[in-house]
Amino acid sequence: MTALSGAHTVGMASCDTYRDRVYGTDSDEEIDPYFAQTTQQTCQGLSGKAPFDVQTPMRFDNAYYKNLIARRGLLSSDQTLYGGGGLQDNLVEMYNTDGEAFARDFAKAMVKMGNVPPPHEIPVEVRLKCSMANNY
Fold first, then answer.
1. What is the DSSP annotation of the chain?
2. How many CA atoms lie within 13 A of 56 on its CB side?
3. The Plant heme peroxidase family profile domain covers which part of the protein (predicted)?
4. pLDDT in tens, 103-135
5. Superfamily name with CATH number, domain 2-113
6. Which residues make Cβ contacts (< 8 Å) with residue 38, sequence separation at least 6?
7. Cβ(33)–Cβ(40) under 8 Å?
8. Of 38, 45, 52, 79, which one is least surrounded by beta carbons within 10 A?
9. Is 61 annotated as a binding residue?
10. Dihedrals phi, psi of 4, to nearest 5 degrees
11. CA 115, CA 118: separation in Å to the nearest integer?
12. Cα-based torsion angle of the residue sequence 20, 21, 25, 30 in order, rounded to the nearest 10 degrees
């Protein structure tokens, strides 16, 4: 999961997914104060968006893990990958310093996930456009 979560090195999130984190309503969360303040500016209305990775938002790299170590994970679910100790912290620290290890592990995890068959009882559709069902 730690490698797959690195997909958040690219892309954007809508305000409703990170509002509680950057405004401090998740009381158990630690967040970089400057990051919280600057990200609040993108979340004035619910239609706002922010990049998962403010350093290199359109490049697939290991900056996501640098952000986690700096307490700049945009989503609560991202930030929980780092700070609890153990294997996940070790992986985040390794991916932070070794972008090639991240890319290699991410590729392996994507192939593994892609080979998981869907449950037989659920009908499957390959969408022409990801955001909507096909109209057959």
1. -HHHHGGGGSSEEEHHHHHHHHTT-STT----HHHHHHHHGGGSSTT-EEES-SSSTTS-SSHHHHHHHTT--SSHHHHTTSSS-SHHHHHHHHHHH-HHHHHHHHHHHHHHHHTSPPPTTS-----SBTTB----
2. 11
3. 1-134
4. 999 999 999 998 988 888 878 888 888 888 887
5. Peroxidase, domain 2 (1.10.420.10)
6. 54
7. no
8. 45
9. yes
10. -65, -35
11. 9
12. 170
- Fill in the amino acid letter for 101: A
Q: Percent of the chain at pLDDT above 90?
A: 63
Q: What is the pLDDT of residues 31-41, one digit of tens each?
A: 999 999 999 98
Tokens of 96: 């932070």
Pairing of strands 49-51, 12-14: antiparallel
Contact 6, 108 (CB under 8 A): no
Lookup: tokens for 121: 């009882």
